[in-house]
Write a structure and sequence with these properties.
Distance between the termini of chain B: 55 Å
Number of strands of chain C: 15
Number of helices of chain C: 13
Bound molecules: iron/sulfur cluster, FE2/S2 (inorganic) cluster
Shape of chain C: globular
Largest sheet of chain B: 5 strands, parallel
Strand content of chain B: 5-15%
Chains: A alpha/beta, B alpha/beta, C alpha+beta
Order of helices and strands of chain B: EHHEHEEHEHHEEEEHHHHH
Oligomer: heterotrimer
Number of strands of chain B: 9
Helix content of chain C: 40-55%
Structural class of chain C: alpha+beta
């Protein structure tokens, strides 16, 4: 994985306020299409998310998510097809189980699990996708930058 | 006989198990030891630190460093070996990834001091010792954050066979090429591609000796772990806990990818898997927390604190 | 001498752990202070917390790569004590086979690789010579004998424990694997040769003891308390009660492992990361005790096996009971090595050793507090764990073998340093010619 879009310095807006950096992994078949639709339908959502398209949430190892946090993302969103709707039958069921393990591990490691979010959004659910980004961004904004979580 | 190859063996905070495993090449010692000129090996030869410090830089061909480096003395020795040796080998999983002692990073060092020196069943009110002792860093950092490592030889400990192979190649001046397979490759148990319905704890029931332990519900990290051990635990009924770290690339996130592995075999609903797998951090990151992404975040947290 | 002087020995060599020595001499040339500095600690007690308790036997062995088997077993015994689980009889035999095999190979490596170079080359030889690699060069027959004995022990551990270093097969309720008949037969076939080598070692040791009798009986003779496991007066390394002997020789305590907190005191010294363990009723430093080979021989009346018992009697004729002779630890080590061999032979010949009934099925985790004590080569090893109702480990206290000896080592060093620097005792000592002269 490269970190081209995630510089390790903290982002600030024009007023000098800190802005959370969110990394979003979207499944190609639903959520990425949903994100696209959100764009074309001009549904407003925070610009903090950098979206990366993967073929299926089943392709995502917790390594991707944790590497993003390690490289400077303040929060990570994973968005895939609803259980039962996965293009590859059960990719998202595996993703869900991995997620549960990872959430516990993150918490054990002292990182606030509210920095990560797993959601299901189909191709037509542009609003669900956009709301997810907003919810996570606001949650992370309250938590502050990951680097200062423990200070 | 060719001239002996000079070698220095250093020991950081470790258990000596890697060196014990080296000694366990048994009669091969009769070939290997005479081929080595031991320049430093504190458990075996009487050279002191000042001897090592007095050698010219890069004057020793091979250096082996066992253990992680948490005390000032460990770090000094690690850097010293790097300076004096042409090839530096991270010997064993502590040296490659922080190893089991890296689990101390789960806690703050003050909490560690509490149970060790201040308050437990046999101690009350002790003070942290400091006279004539090297300081202890607040976290375990991986050895490769202090120096460049040339060769990683993982395992807790690396098997005697692996050590013999590596040493023989080194003495012959040949590259060490190791098979990339995971532990499952060497496991005699049969896999049937059945998803796991319930995760069991290792003492529960009696496992079928011929079937994959993981598919029977016992957490086994064989499929996410480098099989250089040739499956010694799993072929004796014990689940793999991943002591050889990840298959190449050697610094991938073994813990994270082991969670991916378990999620694949056991696609259970969240509540169930949370209830059944009680300690993911202590299980999947057992030997390599310090080099994992989560472990790196933990180390950065300490740096932010001290800045 | 007019100036104060500090002597540092860094590191203390031919020791597996991390230690250095600080010795302070006063203006008058008198020894003012001797410190044995143990330079590292890794906080196992802390990170065992939060783990499922059955994982402790897979984590704790990493405390020591020389004695991972005693750690594995003390740990599993502590879990079983906390949960009220009893392993099957065959499992106990296999565990004993493993721990005796460890005792055997550890004593061999200690005698030949760590101690013997001093006797072979004499204590004042060049460091490049005074080590096991040099023994291999100069006395290949002796070295090969040592290697074969170590191999026997280590390979036996691997067969039973899956790994020779950091075994993995003991589990609450028993063992995860039984011993295959073909494996048993392989080791049975090796017994005769190993017995011969063991007896050769006894002869070699006796020669060393006679040669160095002056050193043994005069240098570092230090009365202390002694600690060791005892099976009704018989030396046992896997099971029993814990005995404490006072310097005069009387057994002052003989207790169940679970009661250890009444007897164990832990003193945090200001100059060592390893704490000093002592006999609590006597206080510190009066109650300083030593563990390890000689201590076990002191606290027990007899050995468990015939050849070892005969060897113990011979030893006692020379050094008595209790023996306070620090150098007699080497002798006691050989006595124990013989017992370990005889135990191995007995177990391998046991008709039930290959039974497959090695684990009970109904292990249930519960809230509990358990203590597991075994003997490691370097001394009595204690693991104490507390678990919650789900069987998660909430608290651990470990007293590892070596910590029982740190204060005793310091005491012996003080006595030896006074002898060397103040009484110049070395000059009058009778030392034999080194076996190999350089
Ligand atoms: S890798 Fe394992 S055997 Fe080697 S020093 Fe570390 S804990 Fe000991
Ligand atoms: S997961 Fe474990 S038990 Fe299953 S095949 Fe792999 S190594 Fe063997
Ligand atoms: S099977 Fe797993 S735990 Fe056992 S030695 Fe191999 S890598 Fe280590
Ligand atoms: S294809 Fe969308 S989650 Fe699998």
């Amino acid at each position: 994985m490269t970190s081209t879009s995630l510089s390790t310095t903290e982002t600030v807006d024009s007023q000098g306020e800190w802005e959370p950096k969110i990394m979003a992994f979207c499944c190609n078949w639903c959520s990425y299409a949903g994100a696209d639709l959100a764009g074309t339908s001009r549904i407003q959502y925070p610009t903090n998310a950098r979206i990366l398209r993967v073929n299926c949430t089943g392709r995502i190892s917790p390594e991707f998510i944790l590497a993003a946090l390690n490289m400077g993302a303040d929060g990570v969103l994973v968005s895939g097809c609803h259980p039962g709707d996965c293009h590859y039958t059960s990719g998202n069921l595996k993703a869900r189980a991995r997620w549960a393990l990872m959430e516990t591990a993150i918490e054990q490691a002292g990182v606030d699990p509210r920095r990560v979010r797993l959601q299901w959004a189909s191709a037509s659910e542009a609003q669900v996708f956009a709301d997810g980004v907003r919810t996570l961004t606001e949650q992370v904004r309250k938590l502050g930058p990951i680097r200062r979580e423990w200070v | 006989m060719a001239d002996p190859v000079s070698i220095a063996m250093g020991q950081g905070s470790s258990c000596w198990g890697c060196f014990q495993s080296l000694v366990d090449i048994h009669l091969n010692l009769a070939q290997v030891l005479p081929a080595l000129e031991i320049k430093y090996w504190q458990a075996v030869a009487d050279f002191k630190l000042h001897h090592l410090e007095s050698y010219e830089d890069k004057s020793i061909v091979v250096g082996l460093y066992e253990g992680m480096a948490r005390t000032e003395e460990d770090i000094h020795l690690l850097k010293l070996l790097r300076d004096k040796c042409q090839v530096l080998i991270a010997f064993g999983s502590c040296s490659c990834f922080g190893g089991i002692p890296g689990l101390a990073n789960f806690s703050d060092i003050e909490e560690c001091y509490d149970v060790k020196f201040r308050e437990n069943a046999t101690v009350t009110g002790g003070k942290v010792p400091s006279e004539n002792l090297p300081g202890i860093a607040p976290v375990v950092k991986p050895n490769n954050s202090f120096v460049d490592i040339d060769i990683y030889l993982p395992g807790c400990p690396p098997t005697s066979k692996l050590i013999l192979t590596a040493v023989t190649k080194l003495l012959a001046g040949e590259p060490i090429e190791l098979p990339p397979h995971t532990v499952c490759h060497y496991c005699e148990r049969e896999k049937k591609e059945t998803p796991v319905e319930k995760i069991l704890r290792p003492y529960q029931g009696i496992a079928d000796p011929d079937r994959c332990l993981l598919e029977q519900g016992y957490i086994c990290m064989g499929s996410s772990t480098w099989g250089l051990c040739e499956g010694q635990c799993v072929n004796k009924g014990a689940t793999c806990r991943g002591c050889f770290g990840p298959p190449p690339p050697i610094l991938q996130d073994h813990g994270a990818n082991s969670m991916a592995m378990l999620g694949t075999y056991a696609p259970l609903p969240s509540e169930q898997i949370k209830e059944q797998v009680k300690d993911p951090l202590g299980t999947f990151y057992r030997f390599d927390y310090a080099t994992s992404n989560l472990g790196q975040i933990r180390i950065k947290r300490e740096e932010v604190k001290t800045r | 001498m007019t100036e104060e002087k500090t002597i540092r020995i860094d590191p203390v060599t031919r020791l597996e752990g991390h230690g250095s020595l600080t010795l302070k001499l006063g203006k008058d040339g008198k020894v003012k202070d001797v410190q044995f500095n143990v330079n590292s600690t890794r906080f196992f007690e802390k990170f065992l917390e939060g783990r499922p308790m059955e994982e402790a036997p897979r984590i704790a062995p990493r405390i020591c790569g020389i004695c991972p088997i005693p750690h594995h077993l003390a740990s599993v015994k502590a879990v079983e004590a906390a949960w009220g689980v009893s392993p099957t009889p065959t499992a106990v035999k296999l565990r004993r086979l493993m721990i005796e095999a460890k005792q055997f190979s550890s004593h061999v490596i200690h005698f030949y690789a760590l101690a013997a170079p001093d006797f072979v080359y004499g204590p004042f030889a060049n460091p490049a010579d005074r080590n096991v690699a040099a023994v291999l060069r100069d006395l290949p027959d002796v070295a090969v004998q040592a290697i074969k004995m170590m191999e026997f022990g280590q390979e036996l551990i691997k067969t039973v424990g899956a790994k020779a270093v950091h075994p993995t097969t003991a589990i609450p309720g028993g063992m995860l694997t039984s011993l295959k008949e073909e494996d048993r037969d392989f080791f049975l076939g090796r017994l005769e040769e190993i017995q011969q080598l063991t007896l050769n070692t006894v002869d070699l040791a006796k020669k060393v003891v006679t040669d160095y009798l002056d050193v043994i009986t005069k240098v570092a003779v230090v009365p202390t308390y002694y600690l060791g496991l005892s099976n009704k007066g018989t030396l046992d390394i896997y099971d029993g009660t814990v005995r404490v002997q006072e310097p005069g020789g009387e057994i002052v305590a003989d207790f169940e492992p679970k009661d250890y907190t009444k007897y164990y005191g832990e003193y945090v010294s200001d100059h060592s990361y390893a704490t000093h363990i002592y006999y609590k009723p006597a206080g510190y430093p009066e109650g300083i005790w030593r563990a390890n080979t000689l201590a076990r021989c002191n606290v027990n009346e007899r050995m468990a096996t015939p050849l070892a018992d005969a060897a113990l009697k011979e030893m006692r004729e020379l050094v008595g009971r209790p023996s306070h002779h620090t150098f007699a630890y080497h002798y006691a080590r050989i006595v124990e090595m013989v017992q370990a061999f005889e135990w191995i032979a007995k177990l391998l010949n046991d008709p039930d050793i290959c039974d497959t009934d090695v684990k009970v099925v109904d292990v249930e985790p519960k809230a509990g507090n358990g203590v597991g004590i075994v003997e490691a080569p370097r001394g009595t090893l204690m693991h104490n764990y507390v678990s919650d109702e789900k069987g998660m480990l909430t608290k651990a206290n470990l007293v590892v073998a070596t910590n029982n000896n740190i204060a005793g080592i310091e005491k012996s060093l003080m006595v030896a340093a006074k002898q060397i620097f103040e009484d110049k005792a070395l000059e009058g000592l009778k030392l034999p010619e080194p076996m190999v002269k350089k």
